[in-house]
Every structure is written in structure tokens, then in C-alpha cells.
Amino acid sequence: MQKKDINGLTEQEFLDKYDPTMFERLSMSVDTVIFSIDTKLQTSNYRKLDDQKLTVLLVKRNEHPFLEHWSLPGGFIGVREAPAKAARRVLRNKTGLDDLYIETLGTYGEPDRDPRMRIISSTYLSLLDRDKFKLQASPYVADSAWFEVEVTDRELVLCGEGQQLVIPYEKAAIRNGKIKTVEYQVTESNPLAFDHGKILLDGLMRLRHKIDDTDIVFNLLPEEFTITQLQQIYEIILGGKLLAPAFRRKIAPKLQETGRYVQEKGHRPSQYFMYKE
Amino acid sequence: MQKKDINGLTEQEFLDKYDPTMFERLSMSVDTVIFSIDTKLQTSNYRKLDDQKLTVLLVKRNEHPFLEHWSLPGGFIGVREAPAKAARRVLRNKTGLDDLYIETLGTYGEPDRDPRMRIISSTYLSLLDRDKFKLQASPYVADSAWFEVEVTDRELVLCGEGQQLVIPYEKAAIRNGKIKTVEYQVTESNPLAFDHGKILLDGLMRLRHKIDDTDIVFNLLPEEFTITQLQQIYEIILGGKLLAPAFRRKIAPKLQETGRYVQEKGHRPSQYFMYKE
DNA sequence: TGAATAGTGTCTGTCAGACATTATGGG
DNA sequence: CCCATAATGTCTGACAGACACTATTCA
Q1: Interface contact flag, B109 A63, Cβ < 8 Å
Q2: How far apart are CA B135 and CA B120, in angstroms?
Q3: Average pLDDT along chain A, 277 residues, taken 10 residues at a time
């Protein structure tokens, strides 16, 4: 099609003359909120079940700004790289894993979120099966570790590497036209780098919401698992207790029996199940 | 804190020396998917109810590339402007409205999505009350108009300005770890500019999902409305019929009676309701 | 046998689907 | 009275909450 614009140019002529520096440009990064489940072995009593904790992957910065602060794994988006690809690259570099569940979380771009310059961050949410995962050392960061996540009404507490990072937050009601929505606001001064406290909190809330209209939890579990393990994950993520009979009924259609049972516990052995469909 | 990095610099020294051109930069835009409801007056039979249609706002480009193609309203993000602010600015410029429901939709950044240069787009979803809305002419676009949205299994059809834009799509199952998710793929050659066909489709699916776990529909309606109007909107967005008694029961807790009734129709008058809480 | 957990049975109240019925206004 | 839509009544089956009960293993 040889349509001409107001300057009498065809599309090809226009593109040949186009000056990409006409508009000011900026940098873009990706940051990833990577959740997993950590099983705490119960050595005190062989009869007790192992405790499960929700964990999130953090890396310790070895550069300014926020030198030695913990942060979400992230990196710059290449000039010829799609954002989701960049997120997968970051995950691959930090964890050695491909082919993860990855989902867009949001765009964070307050002008002052990075003291160096204007950087807009596209963020992603991911969930790892703890059995397949192997944390690798990376030259880009001082350290990386899983932090246990505990949430209350007012704060998010991250525990790991002998440290405890406390991120206070507030639930704010935002009015959008006639309806109200809730937004989580994190105070400026929190131990995480940049606005990563806010991103992490948003990721957690997204996870809570996603858990009961998708099957993402199964990406947190090994191939075979017991219903109790599964229920514990729901409880950890949703932050409350669930009744076993109701839970079993609801989850049953998604489960496949294996006929194999947990051994060597001082109580009735539980069956291993697999994800079905 | 006067921590020094591997080059022996404090944070202030590091920032003073920081060269923002060290990493290649790119441009960012926002694009907005703005839905509304259009009431078609039923002039043929005074007894019939007015028909309601889901509509989306499109603008006609007056520049290369995609000269004279219809596209979603959008614009570049300023270097000191937050993305959500940019989306609100775009909406304000096109519609004269502030204070809308606005929600992040996703980030679109395939390297070749814009033939001029690398542009990553942050997209937003919005819903307008048709009563408060006034479409304004803008010097930045050749035309702007509401297009009626019709969806089938295979295509999205947009009707407006005497034109019919057909956007074929396919539902693709994407495997993410153990679970499957659905993704909507739009063919390259469709009448909308850039990847706006895909963005619009994603926006519609998000809207469908949002409709039954938030109260966003009420932002599409005037202050007072009948339950049938409300039900029609659900039907339009979800793409199917609902049973009146069940719908009334479910929606009742969110409604406030007004005691006022629709006049001058040849059937039992329906009561006007308001959104409650 | 008792501790600890796995798993089932069942009562009850709520609620959605389905369909029938009544209400109302204007020609 | 008929048309067209508004609004309610009610039967039924599915299902979640709640709690009691049975099953299994090992020290």
C-alpha cells in the first residue's frame, strides 16, 4: 500500500528517515518474584510431619546502589530481547532452570525508583518445584538464598541467612470510579533494595489470588506428593487452616492415585498422589 | 551508611560517576484498552428493551507506520512520568476524563512489534460509564470512535464508522511446568496497527475474568440502572445467557433499591437500583 | 496400648440451576 | 385480552462447613 502521510512520504520513506533519538529513551529491567516451598525436616519427633514453608529467592547486591542489600533477582532487558525472554534468562542464570511457570506481574516505573536513572521494571512471578531446583553461585551477585515468608496484617517478614528482614505495609483502599480496590503500600525505608518490597508483596497477593483459580500449586510440588503436603501449601499461601474433608473433596478431581504410600512414620501411611489432567 | 563497593566507592561517589548511557536504552509507550457499553435505542417497537453492546475505543492513525489503520489509544511515556500516569494522561487527552478505573494489563515487547525501533508497551485496561463520557476530537489522531465488539470462538469482530474489522485468533495451550494455560494468538495480518489485536483480545479476556471477582461492571453503568441492564452487561461480556432468578439472587447484596421505576413501556415497570457498598 | 496422622461418613444449611407463576402497563 | 418484560416462588441437587468416626503404623 503506497499511502502517503501529511509530509507526502510513503511508509518506506518515512521509516528510512525515522530518527529513533527523537523521543527521549529510558532503560528497562525485569525483576522476578520466585516462590518455592521449603521442607523443614522434623528431627525432634519421627512421628511429626515435616513442616513446610513458603520461600522466596533473594539475591544480595554487590554493587551500588543498595550495596549489600537483598533484592529480587533481576537484570536489564536487552535492546533486541523480549521482556519475558529476559525474565527467563535471569531465572536461567540464577537457578539453571528453563521452562518454568512464568507470569507477568506488573510494571513498576515511579520516576525515582532507582537513584541512578530512569528505569522501568517489568516484573514476573514464578514458582519452582523444590525437588528440581539447584541454587547456583553467580558472579553477578554477592550471595543468593531462599528466605522464608511470613505474613501478618501489617508486615511481611523474610527469614534467611541468619537474618530477618521486616517489611511493614499498609492496606489502602483506592477508589476507582464507583468501586473500591485495595492496594498494598510499603514504607520507603525497608530492608529490600529499590521498590522490591512492594513488588514482592504484590507478587504474594497475586499468588494468593491465583491459587484457587489455576493449578499453579502443582508446580511447587514434586511428581508425587501426599494430600496433606498439598493442603499445607494451600494453608501457607492463603494464611489459614483448612478442613481436611472439604479440601479432599474439592481437590480430588485433580488427583491421580499412585497406590504408593509414605513409609516409616508412626501413624497410618498416607498415599502419594499425582496431578491429573 | 558509608559502605564501599569493589572499586572503593561510596554510594554517593558511585552515583556521581554513573553513566546512564552505559546500557543501551529504548522507548516505552502505553496503550489503553478502553471498554464501554453502548445502548442502541430500539425505535422499531416501543415495548422492546434497548439493546446493549460492548464497545471499545479506537483511534485512527494519521502517521506512519500503519498510517490510516485503527489502533488502541496510546502514547510515549515521558522520561519523568510513571507509566500509570502516562496512561491516565492519554485517557484524559482522548476522553477528557480523569479518575477512571484503570488496571495494568501487561507488557508487550516483542523486538519487532514496531517497525520504527524498539518500543516496549505497558498496557492498561479501563472501563467507562457511557453517560459521563464525551468523545473529544484530538489533533494527534485522524479520527476516534467506539467500535462494537463481537466475539466468536475464532474471531473478534469490531464494527464502527461503517467498517468491520475482523481479527482472527486461535486458542493455544501453553504448557508451563505441569500445568497448562491458554494463550490467545492473533495472526500477523489483521486490520489493527502493531500488535494491538493481541492486546485487545487479552484485555477482553481479562475483563471476562475480572467481571465475577470484582465490581468493575458498575463503572460501566450510570448511577441508576435496572437489573436487566446489569444482567445484559454480564451476558455481553461473558458471551452467553444467564437465568434471571439466579442472577438476581447473586447480585442482590450489591444493590440498593431506589423506589423509582422505568416509565412508559408496555409492560411491568422495572425498578432502578444503585450500587451498594 | 497410645500417639500421631490418614482418610471416611454423614448431617446440615446454603445456594445455584431450572422452571413455573404472578405482576404490571399500554394498546 | 394480548404482548412483553419484571419480579417472585419453589423444587432439586450439588456442595461446603462441621464434626465424629475409623484406619494404620510403630515404639
Answers
A1: no
A2: 27
A3: 72 67 77 90 74 91 87 90 91 75 91 84 90 74 87 93 95 88 88 95 94 89 93 92 95 94 86 92
Contacts of A28 in chain B (CB under 8 A): 26, 28, 109, 120
Side-chain half-sphere CA neighbours of A75 within 13 A:
19
In chain A, what are the domain boundaries? 27-210, 221-275
SS3 of B14-37: HHHHCCHHHCCCEEEEEEEEEEEE
Query: Are the Cβ atoms of A65 and B11 closer than 8 angstroms?
Result: yes
B99–A177 CB contact, under 8 Å: yes
Name the pTM for this structure: 0.90
Residues A87, A92, A97, A99: what is their CA dihedral angle, to the nearest 10 degrees?
40
* CB-based contacts of B6-13 (< 8 A; 24+ apart in sequence): B6/A62, B6/A63, B9/A64, B10/A64, B11/A64, B11/A65, B11/A67
Degrees to nearest 5, angle at CA B178 with B174 and B184: 15
Q: Top-level CATH class of A27-210?
A: alpha beta
Q: Which fold has domain B221-275?
A: Arc Repressor Mutant, subunit A (1.10.10)
Give the torsion through C-alpha atoms of B152, B157, B159, B163, to 10 deg. Answer: -140
Chain A to chain B, count of Cβ pairs less than 8 Å apart?
164
Around Cβ B189, how many Cβ atoms within 10 Å? 7
Which among B33, B55, B66 has a CA at the least distance from the CA of B141? B66
